[in-house]
Design brief:
The chain is an alpha/beta fold and 333 residues long. The chain is 48% helix and 16% strand. The chain has two domains: 168 residues, Rossmann fold; 124 residues, Rossmann fold (3-Layer(aba) Sandwich).
């Protein structure tokens, strides 16, 4: 996913002024408009209008983070919070966005730690400035050591182990685990977790997640070369349908399963195109991150007791997909 860009301070600081980044299509804009409309309303509190910044490792157009933002924005309305969002899938640029938030003297920071080493100094700088930090989605193992108040998300190893158990129940023997972002520690933990509990063989496939045609051709080539692969596990909802197409073109009978949930995944679970999905409830991650920062600012409350506040994993199969359809359509699951 590497793409080098030269950044200047003004551009970095300016990025924090965006309440949304990553909707790259008309459909994405319509969905965002709907989410913004749903997030309108009056604050439920009369506390000061604090400003919280969320900085993630999302790439452009990743719909998963639209759902995270939807939850964060809803909580921000309720809590009378000015919510700022920025992102970059290059770790060093993400760190610069955290530094820019510190310079802006925001009242709280929410950050992902997909590549923890690159973010450590920036998180420390925020804490030195007296800005409370909550980590979300990735970095559960490093969150406490870095001094964050809490971590909200799923334990990626535990989630992977749940996938391995489910694959065992389904009688699978050989799994291809597709990693779409090299260097993301959470992705490695997912695949390693699968291998820990799965009774068969797990093979990793590294792909460039920003290029879907390349993802499809890479998965297709593996399935054509090894007909004994009977399951493919993708690590993000957008890649599940791409794996389905690769399976069809390869003439494979492998089951396609995925981490994360969206409307397309729910529909394909319901019609049997996909076997199962692992939902980590991204809406809840965004909502709780804002809410916990507000609770800390208002009442010095902290949840988790030094351990992650888990939002998953939840295994979703064909039987549950129909009940979740309404939520996936509105962009909250």
């Amino acid at each position: 996913m590497a793409r080098f860009r030269t950044w200047v301070g003004i551009a970095v600081a300016g990025a924090l002024g965006l309440s949304l980044a990553g909707c790259s299509s008309t459909g994405g804009k319509r969905a965002e408009d709907a989410r913004n409309a749903a997030a309108q309303g009056r604050a439920a509190v009369n506390t000061p209008r604090w400003t919280f910044a969320m900085i993630t490792h999302s790439g452009d157009g990743d719909t998963f983070w639209d759902i995270v933002q939807s939850g964060a924005k809803q909580a921000a309305v309720k809590d009378n919070v000015n919510f700022l969002y920025s992102h970059d899938d290059e770790a060093q640029q993400q760190a610069q966005l955290v530094d820019a938030a510190v310079d802006k003297k925001v009242d709280g920071i929410i950050v992902t730690l997909a590549k923890p080493a690159a973010l450590k100094a920036s998180v420390a700088r925020a804490e030195k400035a007296g800005i409370p930090v909550i980590t979300v989605n990735s970095g559960s193992a490093e969150s406490k050591a870095f001094g964050a108040l809490a971590h909200i998300g799923q334990d990626e190893t535990v989630a992977g182990e749940a996938v391995g158990d489910e694959l065992n129940k389904r009688g699978r023997k050989k799994v291809l685990c597709v990693l779409h972002e090299q260097g993301n520690v959470g992705h490695e933990q997912r695949c390693d977790g699968v291998a820990k509990t799965f009774g068969g063989t797990v093979r990793k496939l590294y792909v460039n997640g920003t290029n879907m045609p390349d993802v499809q051709s890479a998965v297709e080539a593996k399935l054509q070369a090894d007909k004994s692969i009977d399951a493919v596990v993708t690590l993000g909802a957008p890649y599940a349908d791409t794996a389905v197409k690769a399976k069809q073109d390869a003439g494979s009978k492998a089951e396609i399963d995925t981490f994360d949930l969206n409307a397309k995944v729910a529909a394909e679970l319901k019609d049997g195109t996909l076997g199962f999905a692992v939902d980590q409830q991204p809406y809840l991650q965004g909502y709780e991150a804002v809410d916990l920062l507000w609770l800390y600012k208002y009442n010095a409350d902290v949840l988790g007791g030094g351990r992650p506040v888990l939002t998953g994993p939840q295994i979703v199969t064909k039987d549950q997909a129909g009940a979740l359809a309404a939520y996936t359509q509105r962009g909250t699951r």
